[in-house]
Structure formats: structure tokens, C-alpha cells
Task: structure prediction
Amino acid sequence: MKVVRIVSPELDNNTYIVVDRYAAMIDPSTNKGKVLEAVKKYKPVYVILTHAHFDHTQALHTIKQLSNAKIVAHRLEGVDADMFVEDRERISLGDVGLKVLHTPGHTKGSICLYEQTTKSLFSGDTLFPNGVFGRVDLPGGSLEDMIKSLKRLSELDAEILYPGHGKPVGNARKHALAALKAAQHLIT
Result:
């Protein structure tokens, strides 16, 4: 499995292309030029939205016009998708599969994607490095849901964290445990 990262400098947010026999793009963000170059180069079969906030979907309309990729999202995200996924579904890219984890908290339909072979976690805006988690004060956000989602992520056998913003890091489980502790602290 190959992972290509495209950074959108305005908000330091990431678009990832996961390449195996087929390719998937995760969160087509605000760096439209680079995102569209990647669509032409890797020809993704899927464009997966971890959630539908503008900074993770800005290039989506253009991609739909230029590509046959299926737009994938969770049903609770309320976006115009070609394919809705549920918790624990597997999106196959050949030998590699991305397992869908429904992780509400930042939005009702937020998802993370887990690749078991490489122990990679694509966390969208649910989990960031160093004990940071996504905002819960926007429409559809919930601290209680976020705590449940972070607990679930902290129990994964995940090594590499590919967050929606910032640089990827190792020891994903450690970062999830720190974020869980920080979120729980806000309740008490």
C-alpha cells in the first residue's frame, strides 16, 4: 500500500491517496490544483469523505465532473454520495481494504478508515496528534459521542495516524489515548 499526502496550506489540511491495485482519495480538500493532478495521475475508484465540512470537500464538485470515482460517505453526513457506508464495512482496493469506523462527535456522520495490514488510521477531524481531537461545538458535534469514538480508536491496534490536519505520526494508539483523556477531562 502506498499513501500520498497532499497538503492544503491555508488550513494545513490533508488529502490522502491510498494506492493498491486501485486507488482511493480521502477528503478532496482546498488545494484543488494538486488534488486534480492526483486524480489524473492515480485515477481513484473512490473519493471517501471522512465528513462533509468545506475544507475536506472543496474539490469534490470538480472531481465529480472529471472522474468516474464513486463518492463515498456515511449516510448521516447528508451529502450527495454515490455510495453510503456503514460502520465496519470494508472498502476494497485490491489486497488492501479500508475498514469504515463510524466515529461521531465532530459531525454525526464522521468516519475514520483503518487499514489493518499496515495498522494505518485515517482519522479525518476525529483525532489529531498530541491528544487533540476535533471540535464538538459545530452543528452535529457532541462531546459525549466524541468520547465514545475516541475510546473506540484508543482500542485499535493502530500504529500510523493520518490526521485530517497536520503531519502523520507514529504510535497512533498513544495519541488516541491522550485525546480520550483530554475529552473526558472536559466532562468532569
About this structure: The helical segments are 32-42, 54-57, 60-66, 143-154, 172-187. The chain has a mean pLDDT of 95. The radius of gyration is 15 Å. Residues 103 and 149 are 5 Å apart (CA to CA).
